[in-house]
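re: that chain from earlier
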Amino acid sequence: MTMELRDSMTSISHPQELEAKARLGHPKYRPDIDGMRAIAVLSVVLFHAFPSYIKGGFVGVDVFFVISGFLISSIIFGGLERKSFSFGEFYSRRVNRIFPALLIVLFASWAFGWFALFADEFMQLGKHIAGGSVFVSNLVLLSESGYFDNSAETKILLHLWSLGIEEQFYLLWPLILWAAWKARLNALILIVVVAAISFWLNVSNIKTDSVSVFYSPQTRFWELLAGSFLAYVTMNKDVLLPTWRATASPVIRNCQSFAGMAMLFVAFSLVTKNNAFPGWWALLPTIGSVMIIAAGPHAWLNRSILSHRILVFIGLISFPLYLWHWPLLTFARIIESGTPSAEIRLAAVALSVLLAWMTYRFIEIPLRNIGSRTRTIALTILMIGMGITGYVTYKFNGLPDRGAVKFSEKVNAQFVGPLWQYTKNDSCMAKHPMAGTADFGWWFCMESEDANPTLMLIGTSFANHLYAGLAQNPETKQNTILSIGTCDPANPDTAPEGTPVTTHPCSGDRPLQQKNLINDIIDKSKTVKYAIIDGLNPQPDAAYAARLGTYIGQLEEKGVGVIVFIPHLMLGYDAKGCFARPFKSPINDCTISHEQREGIDKAYAPIIAEITKAHPDVRFFDQNQMLCKDEKCTGIQDGMPLYRDEYGHYSEFGSVELAKIFAKWAKDNAPGLLAQ
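^ sequence. v structure.
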């Protein structure tokens, strides 16, 4: 969401800037478009602060896309028609308009994060600052997306994804239009063809990979191109029903404007995060925005409502308001370890408005009186410096030696997120390849040494989180341990026919492929003595239990001893909230209801009895004995967290502690696993 040039500001612009405006062919300032910006930014801000009140407020970003496409294309077309378009001036003005507010927000986020964030959080912020400084935030976020991605509400610069898409459009579209102009190609046909391809990619992939569609430029450009289409037909009144457009009455334009606004409010009301968005749903805010702009500044709604000075003011500060609001809300969520109170969220919104006004009044306006070239060079150098700062913060693991978090270094070292250093290693990936894993959202392939496995960890990420402890325990590390695969082996091997295949590693027939890979490893190595199965459903049905029994039988037929870990208890929230952090005392105590354990035990009692009867050599291990003592269950032991994230994965400390308990149990139940 960028801030376009406004001719109403020329009275305070530097003479060189006015000259550049004339050469670039800027359109006449329309206050109603600033009013549209106001509605768009307010919908986004209110959605982020109070999502239950405006469930579709996030589509305000799509309104910004249309506005940006319209204004930027108007500038390009105007410059090309006058034969005065300059790439240097065009990109220089982008820098001068976008960098000041962005730099302030990036630096403020980093500076506050220095005092407020744990190392893993500060590390991610550094990564996102580096991505934001070169306008690839959408691609960085796409690379992080997946089932185990940390909550979007804790990503301080998440909102820069839209700025990334716009700047990628600004980088490519002027080059494409300039080349088409030189080649005397019809720009309108070019816009329609490229937009159609982009929209087709959007709707054809939305069901199978909605995250990529949301963040990828090629599936969002059609919205900016809708604005570009409008810019072309507005500037070339002899195309697209010229007679109708010339004679359209005020009544028609008023109806058009009201209809467009109605589409926006329908989108704000009906579109939710559960919809496949953008997809077809994005047509509502896109077409609605086009209709409002096309109605012209003299339509009653545009002239009387959208041009009201309050909305225009909010529109003028919309870019810094968009930049400020999300970090403020996110820092509040992180510090509160959950959704902040309504009062805190309201205060964050009010503060974001104040900071937006201050940024506009004391940063953006004064900078316009500095020569354009000098400003561009200085801002570019500062942005490079900011990007390097973010990269260094990321590269050095969030600077854990900062005084603000040094007191919790030992505890915080456990909070490494769901995909940790024990996810996979090169030797395992080379030795046990499976086609397509590079495109999976996640994949586990970790071996303790470059040798044939003697102990396999089979199951979900809850099997993989056992690896650290078993690989370090003196009595179990004599095994060559292999943690491989991602799927619950008791789930169906294939998805129902017609189910879309996505990046999820267990979609389609991938569970069957993983079982085949595991069987092949066992058959070829002939060294696997035991397999540990973990990550089972805590509330299984009869069909699930039958599939588990069948799989156990298949492993036993291959001479593999089977140990089943009964599902472990989970907190249901991030364990970080149980420990003190800068500016906040613990808000949770990591206690777990003993009834939860009783529920799991009750669900598995008949399954254990049935499977043990059919397979008397199978062993079941109750890992919840680490978490529960004397009918009290907790996720903290000796002042250390037993969990490492919000999804219930054991921390390295928890994995090591569990391995100690398991080794004692194994002396009577699986002595072949232990060092002799």
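The longest strand covers residues 561-566.
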